[in-house]
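Example record for the data management plan.
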Amino acid sequence: MKKNWVNLFVALLLFIPLRFLQVSIDYSRKLEDLETGLLLLPGQAAGSLVLSGFKGLAADLLWLNVEEYWHSGQHYKMLPLLEAVAWLQPTYVTVWAVGGWHMAYNIYVQVGQDESKISEAFQKQQETWSAGDRAKYEVLVEAVRENKAILQQLDKKGKTDELVKDYLSRLEKYQARIAALEEKEADKKLVETVKTLLEIPRNKIFWYRQGVQFLKKGITYNPDKYDLYFELGWTYYHKGMDYPNAVKYLEKAIKHPHPDYVDDVLAHAYEKNGQIDRAIAQWEYLITRAPSFRSIAERMIHDLKTKGKATP
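Corresponding structural encoding:
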């Protein structure tokens, strides 16, 4: 009996690194758009057998590693672990919700936390340039200015597919010009500083999209619950300012038993999406569904009817 327990423990230890390898492969396939669309991951059936009775323990251990990487700033190591935890407990919606939130919100902010410091260092170095340097490195100054504009627009204009395409196109233009500059006798440290800045909006877009995709994947495992439809709709609404997609997923959320605040957010999303009549109807419905919302709903309806706008 003791020998069987030892064998099982060894099997578990051998399986975990193999699973990480598979997650890494799946992640690479996702980046290259080579996913098959199958809900069953390769090796999942075998993994279920090997980890039978130990999934909760394995998930807890992996989750501790996720927390460690987050608090130590090693956010780039979190995605494979979040994927692994979700694989072990695919019907536990909190894993998907927290994972999506970490990516689209926490990591999104963290990858840009050094932007101001790097920009200030570049500015100070710029002040020491000669007239010749200014002419030589004009493209770097333009790139830094454009980079700052894109970062502001990401949070003020949003992250719809059309806008993201524009942001990336603008970044690629400057990256190509900087690559040409590198071929000349340019200050390598200076060039690397600007290249680092240009990676910040790219990384923000990457992690926002990863959060969205992670939530979508969670929905495939939990299609009959409102939770992840709402989380995805809220992420589109609040973080992405992508109102058509926000409406799409919030409408899916209300098809399942849900708390009243889901209807509230949907009403706001209708308004932001230009669907004023639908927004008014949603507020009127909310009055009948949740009398506690009557005061705010009546005010919103009044403003929508008289001003055509209610949400700040």
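Summary line stored alongside the record: The chain has three domains: 1-89, 115-204, 223-312.
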